Prior knowledge:
Layout: H1 2-16, H2 18-54, E1 60-65, H3 72-80, H4 90-96, E2 105-120, E3 123-132, H5 136-139, E4 145-148, H6 153-157, E5 162-165, H7 167-174, E6 183-186, E7 189-197, E8 215-218, H8 219-227, E9 234-239, H9 245-259, E10 270-274, H10 275-318, H11 320-328, H12 333-372, H13 384-410, H14 414-419
Parallel strand pairs: 3-8, 5-7
Antiparallel strand pairs: 1-9, 1-10, 2-3, 2-9, 4-7, 5-8, 6-7
Helix pairs in contact: 1-12, 2-10, 2-12, 2-13, 4-9, 10-12, 10-13, 12-13
Amino acid sequence: xxxxxxxxxxxxxxxxxxxxxxxxxxxxxxxxxxxxxxxxxxxxxxxxxxxxxxxxxxxxxxxxxxxxxxxxxxxxxxxxxxxxxxxxxxxxxxxxxxxxxxxxxxxxxxxxxxxxxxxxxxxxxxxxxxxxxxxxxxxxxxxxxxxxxxxxxxxxxxxxxxxxxxxxxxxxxxxxxxxxxxxxxxxxxxxxxxxxxxxxxxxxxxxxxxxxxxxxxxxxxxxxxxxxxxxxxxxxxxxxxxxxxxxxxxxxxxxxxxxxxxxxxxxxxxxxxxxxxxxxxxxxxxxxxxxxxxxxxxxxxxxxxxxxxxxxxxxxxxxxxxxxxxxxxxxxxxxxxxxxxxxxxxxxxxxxxxxxxxxxxxxxxxxxxxxxxxxxxxxxxxxxxxxxxxxxxxxxxxxxxxxxxxxxxxxxxxxxxxxxx
Length: 421
Protein backbone atom coordinates (compact mmCIF):
# COMPACT_ATOMS: atom_id res chain seq x y z
CA UNK A 1 0.00 0.00 0.00
CA UNK A 2 2.81 2.40 0.82
CA UNK A 3 4.25 1.93 -2.67
CA UNK A 4 0.87 2.57 -4.27
CA UNK A 5 0.47 5.71 -2.20
CA UNK A 6 3.87 6.98 -3.27
CA UNK A 7 3.09 6.14 -6.91
CA UNK A 8 -0.21 8.02 -6.64
CA UNK A 9 1.61 11.06 -5.29
CA UNK A 10 4.01 10.86 -8.26
CA UNK A 11 1.12 10.86 -10.73
CA UNK A 12 -0.44 13.87 -8.99
CA UNK A 13 2.89 15.73 -9.17
CA UNK A 14 3.25 14.99 -12.90
CA UNK A 15 -0.30 16.16 -13.58
CA UNK A 16 0.44 19.40 -11.77
CA UNK A 17 3.30 20.07 -14.21
CA UNK A 18 1.82 18.80 -17.47
CA UNK A 19 3.91 20.94 -19.86
CA UNK A 20 7.18 20.05 -18.16
CA UNK A 21 6.24 16.35 -18.13
CA UNK A 22 5.22 16.55 -21.80
CA UNK A 23 8.59 17.84 -22.97
CA UNK A 24 10.42 15.31 -20.82
CA UNK A 25 8.37 12.50 -22.35
CA UNK A 26 8.87 13.94 -25.85
CA UNK A 27 12.67 13.63 -25.56
CA UNK A 28 12.34 9.93 -24.69
CA UNK A 29 9.75 9.35 -27.44
CA UNK A 30 12.11 10.77 -30.07
CA UNK A 31 15.05 8.71 -28.82
CA UNK A 32 13.17 5.41 -28.61
CA UNK A 33 11.43 5.95 -31.96
CA UNK A 34 14.77 6.76 -33.61
CA UNK A 35 16.30 3.52 -32.34
CA UNK A 36 13.33 1.44 -33.53
CA UNK A 37 13.10 3.15 -36.94
CA UNK A 38 16.82 3.07 -37.74
CA UNK A 39 17.36 -0.55 -36.71
CA UNK A 40 14.16 -1.68 -38.45
CA UNK A 41 15.32 0.02 -41.65
CA UNK A 42 18.68 -1.70 -41.21
CA UNK A 43 16.92 -5.06 -40.89
CA UNK A 44 14.85 -4.29 -43.98
CA UNK A 45 17.94 -3.40 -46.01
CA UNK A 46 19.69 -6.56 -44.87
CA UNK A 47 16.64 -8.63 -45.84
CA UNK A 48 16.51 -6.98 -49.28
CA UNK A 49 20.19 -7.64 -49.98
CA UNK A 50 19.86 -11.23 -48.74
CA UNK A 51 16.85 -11.82 -51.00
CA UNK A 52 18.76 -10.34 -53.95
CA UNK A 53 21.73 -12.63 -53.27
CA UNK A 54 19.51 -15.69 -52.85
CA UNK A 55 18.04 -14.99 -56.30
CA UNK A 56 21.36 -16.16 -57.80
CA UNK A 57 21.05 -19.51 -56.07
CA UNK A 58 23.39 -21.16 -53.55
CA UNK A 59 25.65 -22.69 -56.24
CA UNK A 60 27.02 -19.46 -57.69
CA UNK A 61 30.76 -18.77 -57.61
CA UNK A 62 32.09 -15.26 -58.12
CA UNK A 63 35.66 -14.84 -59.39
CA UNK A 64 37.08 -11.37 -58.72
CA UNK A 65 40.51 -10.05 -59.63
CA UNK A 66 42.89 -9.01 -56.87
CA UNK A 67 46.45 -7.78 -56.48
CA UNK A 68 48.77 -10.76 -55.86
CA UNK A 69 50.13 -11.12 -52.33
CA UNK A 70 47.63 -8.84 -50.57
CA UNK A 71 44.24 -9.42 -49.00
CA UNK A 72 41.01 -8.50 -50.75
CA UNK A 73 40.47 -5.30 -48.75
CA UNK A 74 43.93 -3.94 -49.62
CA UNK A 75 43.45 -5.06 -53.21
CA UNK A 76 40.15 -3.20 -53.55
CA UNK A 77 41.67 -0.07 -52.01
CA UNK A 78 44.56 -0.21 -54.49
CA UNK A 79 42.26 -0.75 -57.47
CA UNK A 80 40.11 2.21 -56.39
CA UNK A 81 43.30 4.27 -56.59
CA UNK A 82 43.77 3.21 -60.22
CA UNK A 83 45.75 -0.04 -60.19
CA UNK A 84 44.35 -2.51 -62.77
CA UNK A 85 44.67 -6.29 -62.84
CA UNK A 86 44.46 -7.45 -66.45
CA UNK A 87 45.11 -11.19 -66.14
CA UNK A 88 41.53 -12.48 -66.29
CA UNK A 89 40.94 -13.30 -69.99
CA UNK A 90 38.32 -14.64 -72.37
CA UNK A 91 40.41 -17.83 -72.59
CA UNK A 92 39.59 -18.50 -68.94
CA UNK A 93 35.88 -18.41 -69.78
CA UNK A 94 36.30 -20.78 -72.74
CA UNK A 95 38.42 -23.21 -70.72
CA UNK A 96 35.87 -23.31 -67.91
CA UNK A 97 33.11 -24.15 -70.40
CA UNK A 98 34.91 -27.37 -71.32
CA UNK A 99 32.39 -29.97 -70.18
CA UNK A 100 34.89 -32.81 -70.34
CA UNK A 101 37.03 -31.16 -67.66
CA UNK A 102 34.25 -29.38 -65.75
CA UNK A 103 31.10 -31.50 -66.17
CA UNK A 104 29.51 -29.98 -63.06
CA UNK A 105 29.66 -26.39 -64.37
CA UNK A 106 26.35 -25.40 -65.96
CA UNK A 107 27.06 -21.78 -66.90
CA UNK A 108 30.02 -19.38 -67.14
CA UNK A 109 29.76 -15.62 -67.53
CA UNK A 110 32.62 -13.20 -68.10
CA UNK A 111 31.95 -9.50 -67.82
CA UNK A 112 33.45 -6.19 -68.87
CA UNK A 113 31.69 -2.89 -68.25
CA UNK A 114 32.09 0.51 -69.88
CA UNK A 115 30.04 3.61 -70.63
CA UNK A 116 29.01 4.84 -74.08
CA UNK A 117 26.43 6.93 -75.91
CA UNK A 118 23.67 4.87 -77.52
CA UNK A 119 21.77 6.56 -80.34
CA UNK A 120 18.49 5.74 -82.10
CA UNK A 121 17.07 8.26 -84.53
CA UNK A 122 17.18 11.66 -82.82
CA UNK A 123 17.36 10.14 -79.34
CA UNK A 124 20.60 9.44 -77.52
CA UNK A 125 21.41 8.22 -74.05
CA UNK A 126 24.66 7.65 -72.16
CA UNK A 127 24.40 4.22 -70.56
CA UNK A 128 26.50 1.42 -69.18
CA UNK A 129 27.58 -1.17 -71.73
CA UNK A 130 27.52 -4.58 -70.11
CA UNK A 131 29.67 -6.98 -72.07
CA UNK A 132 28.78 -10.51 -71.05
CA UNK A 133 28.79 -14.14 -72.13
CA UNK A 134 25.78 -15.86 -73.72
CA UNK A 135 25.32 -17.75 -70.41
CA UNK A 136 24.41 -14.51 -68.63
CA UNK A 137 20.64 -15.28 -68.29
CA UNK A 138 21.53 -18.65 -66.73
CA UNK A 139 23.63 -16.88 -64.09
CA UNK A 140 21.32 -13.92 -63.45
CA UNK A 141 18.10 -15.75 -62.59
CA UNK A 142 16.12 -12.48 -62.51
CA UNK A 143 17.04 -11.67 -66.13
CA UNK A 144 13.98 -12.78 -68.13
CA UNK A 145 13.33 -11.93 -71.76
CA UNK A 146 10.25 -9.77 -72.35
CA UNK A 147 10.55 -10.06 -76.14
CA UNK A 148 13.11 -11.55 -78.49
CA UNK A 149 16.11 -13.59 -77.40
CA UNK A 150 19.58 -13.36 -75.92
CA UNK A 151 22.64 -13.57 -78.17
CA UNK A 152 24.29 -16.93 -78.88
CA UNK A 153 27.78 -18.44 -78.57
CA UNK A 154 28.18 -18.21 -82.35
CA UNK A 155 27.36 -14.49 -82.30
CA UNK A 156 29.80 -13.94 -79.44
CA UNK A 157 32.63 -15.81 -81.19
CA UNK A 158 32.04 -14.11 -84.56
CA UNK A 159 31.99 -10.59 -83.06
CA UNK A 160 28.40 -10.13 -84.24
CA UNK A 161 27.09 -6.65 -83.51
CA UNK A 162 23.91 -7.57 -81.70
CA UNK A 163 22.48 -6.24 -78.44
CA UNK A 164 19.82 -6.77 -75.80
CA UNK A 165 18.28 -3.75 -74.11
CA UNK A 166 17.20 -3.23 -70.54
CA UNK A 167 13.51 -2.33 -70.18
CA UNK A 168 14.17 1.31 -69.23
CA UNK A 169 16.60 1.88 -72.10
CA UNK A 170 14.18 0.32 -74.58
CA UNK A 171 11.40 2.63 -73.40
CA UNK A 172 13.60 5.75 -73.48
CA UNK A 173 14.87 5.10 -77.01
CA UNK A 174 11.87 3.48 -78.68
CA UNK A 175 8.80 4.49 -76.66
CA UNK A 176 5.88 2.40 -77.90
CA UNK A 177 7.79 1.25 -81.01
CA UNK A 178 9.08 -2.33 -81.05
CA UNK A 179 12.90 -2.37 -80.81
CA UNK A 180 13.30 -5.87 -82.27
CA UNK A 181 15.29 -5.88 -85.48
CA UNK A 182 16.10 -2.17 -85.22
CA UNK A 183 19.67 -0.85 -85.09
CA UNK A 184 21.09 1.37 -82.38
CA UNK A 185 24.41 3.17 -82.94
CA UNK A 186 27.32 2.99 -80.56
CA UNK A 187 30.86 4.22 -81.27
CA UNK A 188 29.88 4.71 -84.90
CA UNK A 189 28.74 1.08 -85.28
CA UNK A 190 25.25 -0.35 -85.74
CA UNK A 191 24.07 -2.94 -83.21
CA UNK A 192 20.97 -4.91 -84.04
CA UNK A 193 18.50 -5.27 -81.15
CA UNK A 194 17.61 -8.95 -80.76
CA UNK A 195 15.87 -8.82 -77.40
CA UNK A 196 14.58 -6.77 -74.47
CA UNK A 197 14.67 -7.84 -70.82
CA UNK A 198 11.70 -7.72 -68.50
CA UNK A 199 12.01 -5.03 -65.78
CA UNK A 200 14.33 -6.23 -63.03
CA UNK A 201 13.04 -5.12 -59.64
CA UNK A 202 14.74 -4.83 -56.27
CA UNK A 203 18.13 -3.20 -55.99
CA UNK A 204 18.71 -3.93 -59.68
CA UNK A 205 16.37 -1.12 -60.63
CA UNK A 206 16.89 1.45 -57.91
CA UNK A 207 20.60 1.87 -57.40
CA UNK A 208 22.92 4.31 -59.18
CA UNK A 209 23.61 1.46 -61.66
CA UNK A 210 20.12 0.65 -62.92
CA UNK A 211 20.43 -2.65 -64.77
CA UNK A 212 17.21 -1.83 -66.62
CA UNK A 213 19.10 1.04 -68.27
CA UNK A 214 21.97 -1.16 -69.55
CA UNK A 215 22.73 -2.25 -73.09
CA UNK A 216 23.91 -5.87 -73.10
CA UNK A 217 26.45 -6.74 -75.79
CA UNK A 218 28.44 -9.95 -76.53
CA UNK A 219 31.62 -10.06 -74.47
CA UNK A 220 34.08 -10.41 -77.36
CA UNK A 221 32.81 -7.44 -79.36
CA UNK A 222 32.69 -5.40 -76.16
CA UNK A 223 36.34 -6.11 -75.43
CA UNK A 224 37.73 -5.76 -78.95
CA UNK A 225 35.60 -3.07 -80.59
CA UNK A 226 33.95 -1.04 -77.85
CA UNK A 227 36.31 -0.91 -74.87
CA UNK A 228 39.53 -1.80 -76.69
CA UNK A 229 40.83 -4.07 -73.90
CA UNK A 230 41.65 -7.76 -73.63
CA UNK A 231 40.80 -8.49 -69.98
CA UNK A 232 37.70 -9.13 -67.89
CA UNK A 233 36.66 -7.47 -64.65
CA UNK A 234 34.87 -10.46 -63.16
CA UNK A 235 33.52 -13.95 -63.82
CA UNK A 236 30.49 -15.85 -62.53
CA UNK A 237 30.10 -19.61 -62.52
CA UNK A 238 27.02 -21.69 -61.78
CA UNK A 239 27.60 -25.20 -60.42
CA UNK A 240 25.01 -27.93 -60.95
CA UNK A 241 24.89 -28.97 -57.28
CA UNK A 242 26.16 -27.57 -54.01
CA UNK A 243 28.08 -30.78 -53.36
CA UNK A 244 30.46 -29.81 -56.18
CA UNK A 245 31.24 -26.30 -54.88
CA UNK A 246 34.43 -27.24 -53.01
CA UNK A 247 35.64 -29.36 -55.90
CA UNK A 248 34.86 -26.56 -58.34
CA UNK A 249 36.86 -24.03 -56.31
CA UNK A 250 39.89 -26.35 -56.25
CA UNK A 251 39.66 -27.22 -59.98
CA UNK A 252 39.03 -23.62 -61.08
CA UNK A 253 41.93 -22.38 -58.97
CA UNK A 254 44.28 -24.89 -60.61
CA UNK A 255 43.13 -23.88 -64.11
CA UNK A 256 43.50 -20.15 -63.46
CA UNK A 257 46.94 -20.59 -61.90
CA UNK A 258 48.05 -22.57 -64.93
CA UNK A 259 46.60 -20.01 -67.35
CA UNK A 260 48.12 -17.10 -65.41
CA UNK A 261 51.50 -18.80 -64.81
CA UNK A 262 51.11 -18.76 -61.03
CA UNK A 263 53.11 -21.33 -59.05
CA UNK A 264 52.58 -19.93 -55.54
CA UNK A 265 48.93 -19.86 -54.33
CA UNK A 266 49.85 -16.88 -52.14
CA UNK A 267 50.46 -14.93 -55.35
CA UNK A 268 46.99 -15.57 -56.81
CA UNK A 269 45.66 -12.67 -58.90
CA UNK A 270 42.08 -13.84 -58.37
CA UNK A 271 39.79 -14.73 -55.51
CA UNK A 272 36.80 -17.07 -55.59
CA UNK A 273 33.77 -16.30 -53.45
CA UNK A 274 30.87 -18.64 -52.78
CA UNK A 275 27.37 -17.31 -52.26
CA UNK A 276 27.59 -18.41 -48.62
CA UNK A 277 30.71 -16.26 -48.16
CA UNK A 278 29.05 -13.28 -49.83
CA UNK A 279 26.00 -13.62 -47.57
CA UNK A 280 28.29 -13.93 -44.54
CA UNK A 281 30.00 -10.67 -45.49
CA UNK A 282 26.63 -9.00 -45.95
CA UNK A 283 25.69 -10.23 -42.46
CA UNK A 284 28.92 -8.89 -40.94
CA UNK A 285 28.55 -5.49 -42.60
CA UNK A 286 24.89 -5.37 -41.56
CA UNK A 287 25.72 -6.07 -37.90
CA UNK A 288 28.43 -3.38 -37.83
CA UNK A 289 26.16 -0.87 -39.60
CA UNK A 290 23.24 -1.58 -37.26
CA UNK A 291 25.45 -1.23 -34.19
CA UNK A 292 26.79 2.09 -35.44
CA UNK A 293 23.36 3.45 -36.38
CA UNK A 294 21.85 2.12 -33.15
CA UNK A 295 24.58 3.83 -31.14
CA UNK A 296 23.97 7.14 -32.91
CA UNK A 297 20.22 6.84 -32.30
CA UNK A 298 20.80 5.93 -28.64
CA UNK A 299 22.63 9.24 -28.17
CA UNK A 300 19.27 10.99 -28.47
CA UNK A 301 18.03 8.78 -25.62
CA UNK A 302 21.01 9.87 -23.54
CA UNK A 303 20.21 13.51 -24.27
CA UNK A 304 16.63 12.83 -23.21
CA UNK A 305 17.90 11.31 -19.96
CA UNK A 306 19.99 14.40 -19.21
CA UNK A 307 16.91 16.50 -19.88
CA UNK A 308 14.93 14.43 -17.40
CA UNK A 309 17.62 14.90 -14.73
CA UNK A 310 17.65 18.66 -15.25
CA UNK A 311 13.87 18.89 -15.10
CA UNK A 312 13.71 16.71 -11.99
CA UNK A 313 16.36 18.86 -10.28
CA UNK A 314 14.29 21.95 -11.07
CA UNK A 315 11.24 20.14 -9.74
CA UNK A 316 13.08 19.28 -6.51
CA UNK A 317 14.01 22.93 -6.06
CA UNK A 318 10.48 24.19 -6.74
CA UNK A 319 8.88 21.60 -4.45
CA UNK A 320 11.17 22.13 -1.47
CA UNK A 321 8.35 23.31 0.78
CA UNK A 322 6.21 20.34 -0.32
CA UNK A 323 9.06 18.01 0.61
CA UNK A 324 9.40 19.66 4.02
CA UNK A 325 5.66 19.45 4.65
CA UNK A 326 5.51 15.77 3.71
CA UNK A 327 8.46 14.96 5.94
CA UNK A 328 6.92 16.86 8.85
CA UNK A 329 3.77 14.77 8.39
CA UNK A 330 5.73 11.52 8.67
CA UNK A 331 7.09 10.81 5.19
CA UNK A 332 10.51 9.18 5.35
CA UNK A 333 13.53 9.99 3.21
CA UNK A 334 12.91 6.66 1.48
CA UNK A 335 9.34 7.73 0.61
CA UNK A 336 10.60 11.00 -0.90
CA UNK A 337 13.34 9.21 -2.84
CA UNK A 338 10.88 6.71 -4.27
CA UNK A 339 8.39 9.44 -5.21
CA UNK A 340 10.88 11.32 -7.37
CA UNK A 341 12.38 8.11 -8.75
CA UNK A 342 8.94 6.82 -9.74
CA UNK A 343 8.20 10.14 -11.44
CA UNK A 344 11.36 9.73 -13.51
CA UNK A 345 10.52 6.11 -14.35
CA UNK A 346 6.97 7.06 -15.32
CA UNK A 347 8.26 9.69 -17.71
CA UNK A 348 10.69 7.29 -19.39
CA UNK A 349 8.24 4.36 -19.32
CA UNK A 350 5.44 6.35 -20.94
CA UNK A 351 7.89 7.91 -23.39
CA UNK A 352 9.25 4.44 -24.20
CA UNK A 353 5.81 2.98 -24.93
CA UNK A 354 4.76 5.94 -27.09
CA UNK A 355 8.16 5.93 -28.84
CA UNK A 356 7.85 2.21 -29.64
CA UNK A 357 4.34 2.63 -31.07
CA UNK A 358 5.43 5.69 -33.08
CA UNK A 359 8.60 3.90 -34.27
CA UNK A 360 6.65 0.82 -35.43
CA UNK A 361 4.11 2.95 -37.30
CA UNK A 362 6.78 5.08 -39.01
CA UNK A 363 8.93 2.00 -39.85
CA UNK A 364 5.92 0.30 -41.44
CA UNK A 365 5.02 3.44 -43.42
CA UNK A 366 8.60 3.88 -44.65
CA UNK A 367 8.66 0.21 -45.67
CA UNK A 368 5.41 0.62 -47.63
CA UNK A 369 6.70 3.78 -49.34
CA UNK A 370 9.97 2.08 -50.29
CA UNK A 371 8.09 -0.93 -51.68
CA UNK A 372 5.86 1.29 -53.84
CA UNK A 373 8.76 3.45 -55.06
CA UNK A 374 10.82 0.75 -56.77
CA UNK A 375 11.86 -1.83 -54.18
CA UNK A 376 8.92 -4.28 -54.09
CA UNK A 377 11.08 -6.94 -52.43
CA UNK A 378 11.85 -4.74 -49.41
CA UNK A 379 10.68 -6.75 -46.37
CA UNK A 380 8.42 -4.91 -43.92
CA UNK A 381 10.63 -5.69 -40.94
CA UNK A 382 10.29 -4.54 -37.35
CA UNK A 383 13.39 -5.16 -35.25
CA UNK A 384 11.89 -6.53 -32.04
CA UNK A 385 15.36 -6.60 -30.56
CA UNK A 386 15.44 -2.84 -31.12
CA UNK A 387 11.95 -2.49 -29.62
CA UNK A 388 12.74 -4.30 -26.37
CA UNK A 389 16.27 -2.94 -26.27
CA UNK A 390 15.09 0.66 -26.67
CA UNK A 391 12.46 0.26 -23.96
CA UNK A 392 14.96 -1.32 -21.58
CA UNK A 393 17.47 1.43 -22.32
CA UNK A 394 14.82 4.11 -21.73
CA UNK A 395 13.91 2.58 -18.36
CA UNK A 396 17.58 2.31 -17.44
CA UNK A 397 18.15 5.95 -18.36
CA UNK A 398 15.14 6.97 -16.26
CA UNK A 399 16.54 5.04 -13.32
CA UNK A 400 20.10 6.36 -13.68
CA UNK A 401 19.21 9.99 -14.31
CA UNK A 402 16.41 9.95 -11.75
CA UNK A 403 18.54 8.72 -8.84
CA UNK A 404 20.51 11.94 -8.28
CA UNK A 405 17.50 14.31 -8.16
CA UNK A 406 15.63 11.80 -5.96
CA UNK A 407 18.56 11.58 -3.53
CA UNK A 408 18.79 15.38 -3.42
CA UNK A 409 15.11 15.55 -2.51
CA UNK A 410 15.38 12.78 0.11
CA UNK A 411 18.33 14.49 1.87
CA UNK A 412 16.52 17.77 2.49
CA UNK A 413 15.94 18.68 6.14
CA UNK A 414 12.25 19.17 7.02
CA UNK A 415 12.92 22.40 8.98
CA UNK A 416 15.09 23.94 6.24
CA UNK A 417 12.58 22.87 3.61
CA UNK A 418 9.67 24.51 5.46
CA UNK A 419 11.64 27.77 5.82
CA UNK A 420 12.48 27.73 2.05
CA UNK A 421 10.93 30.61 0.10
